[in-house]
Specification:
The protein has 402 residues and is α+β, with helices and mostly antiparallel strands. Helix content is 27%, strand content 31%. It binds coenzyme A.
Length: 402
């Protein structure tokens, strides 16, 4: 237990604190929480693991994290703390309570030895100062299905069946696991998260229908329909595919939903969807967003966990303005594998920890950060080498929201 200069106490929560934590969540995220949802979060986090801030007896801030395993380029699973439900009461904002909570929580995460801490951000301006960088890129696209025609060169592999998601649970979870093991940023999905997806509670349908499912041996789609003034939209909640054929077959099935006007889905930058259509402009991007943010807690462990696309010899100076994960590191890559050690040698690259977090899963480019003066490299060929080496065969994508 610690007390801040402002008289705020920071301590670990107990079971008895949960009603107050839940109330704070409801107010901060403007969303009432059902008892089932509270039980779900408690199950994921552990009742006595949140860190809370108290002003007298009042809970005025909270943060918690879920133990996770996240895939990095090359397919290794790395332990991560998945930070969630970060709240400070509107009566107590901007007086350092989040910083005090984070200082305590990250000291615990560091002691636990996990190489990564991850989160999703309600606002983009908060977490860079704590060493987090956005590390996946996703776009929401909408297709007016009435005009969408498949390109004549695109095959018709078939193999898709319509299913009730809950009845296809073993197939869906098995495909997710295959997709997750190869996709940087994707987390192992615990059973209780699956339980909630298949339970499909009315409170989480956003005014849409219950979930529909399309299943292929190597992919699946979960979607729901929403009726509006201009017809019905099929909103894809999850599209997971591990082969080109299943990707094509599932899109063919979605585009075959005759009475649906519009299909909405979330895609990663290298999704081949536009190339499937005779008119690629029909895939209209309506928003582009970050999902997963990464703070590297242990630079050598994190950099050695992933694979690289070419040999590399570089000394990097990594600045951590929040904790002490930074320093100078020699990164030597041979045949895809890295050895990363602390060094005193002059750096060829200087960057902040949040920028390294953004490069880590291959979704962002060192050259673009250099152009923004957020990364310094000794010469242009070092930038090229970094960008090539840090690339990833598969686009990074978050597996499930938390
Ligand atoms: C975001 C939130 C937790 C911030 O709590 P807080 O106690 O006011 O934050 P602090 O006073 O400790 O601020 C810590 C730092 O973050 C900055 N910061 C806080 N909120 C910010 C925001 N919304 N945008 C940009 N910077 C922000 C502060 O300026 C401060 O910077 P500094 O320490 O470098 O000077 C609080 O506003 C909140 O509960 N918001 C609603 C729920 C939410 O969005 N939670 C985050 C979920 S990801």
């Amino acid at each position: 237990m610690t007390t801040t200069t402002g008289g705020i106490t920071i301590r670990t929560a107990t079971e008895q604190d949960w009603p107050k934590i839940v109330l704070l969540n409801e107010i901060c995220f403007a969303t009432p929480q059902t008892p089932e949802l509270t039980a779900f979060w408690k199950g994921l986090v552990g009742a006595d693991r949140p860190v809370i801030a108290l002003d007298g007896a009042a809970v005025v801030g909270a943060t918690m994290d879920i133990p996770m395993t996240v895939t990095v380029p090359g397919g290794a699973g790395v332990a991560a703390a998945g930070i969630t439900a970060v709240t400070v009461a509107p009566t107590h904002r901007r007086r350092g309570i989040l910083r005090a909570l984070y200082t305590e929580q990250h000291a615990r995460i560091r002691r636990s030895g996990v190489p990564l801490s991850i989160l999703t951000a309600s606002e983009g301006g908060i977490y860079g100062r704590f060493g987090y960088g956005p590390t996946t890129v996703e776009s929401t696209v909408g297709i007016d299905r009435r005009f969408a025609a498949l390109h004549p060169d695109v095959p018709d592999p078939g193999g898709v069946r319509v299913v009730r998601p809950v009845e296809a649970r073993p197939s869906i979870t098995e495909i997710y696991d295959r997709w997750q093991r190869r996709t940087p940023g994707a987390q192992v999905r615990p059973d209780n998260v699956w339980d909630r997806i298949f339970a499909d509670p009315e409170s989480e349908r956003g005014g849409g229908t219950s979930l529909f499912g399309l299943l292929h041996d190597d992919g699946y789609v979960l979607y729901r329909c929403v009726s509006g003034e201009h017809g019905t939209t099929a909103r894809v909640q999850e599209f997971r595919s591990v082969t080109d054929d299943s990707h094509i077959a599932l899109w063919r099935a979605l585009l075959g939903l005759d009475l649906i006007r519009r299909i909405e889905a979330s895609v990663v930058p290298d999704d081949p969807l536009p190339y499937l259509l005779t008119d690629s402009r029909l895939v209209r991007t309506t928003s582009r967003h970050d999902e997963l943010w990464v703070r590297i807690m242990d630079v050598p462990a994190a950099l050695e966990a992933r694979v690289y696309r070419c040999d590399l010899d570089v000394v990097m100076q990594v600045d951590d303005g929040f904790l002490d994960a930074g320093g100078r590191f020699a990164l030597r890559v041979r045949d895809g594998r890295a050895v990363c050690t602390r060094t005193e040698t002059d750096p060829q690259v200087v960057l902040a920890l949040d920028v390294l977090g953004s490069l880590y899963l291959g979704a962002h480019r060192a050259r673009a950060f250099a152009a923004a003066n957020r990364l310094w490299a000794v010469d242009s060929s070092t930038l090229d080498a970094l960008d090539l080496a840090f690339g990833s065969e598969y686009s990074a994508q978050m597996g499930w929201g938390f």
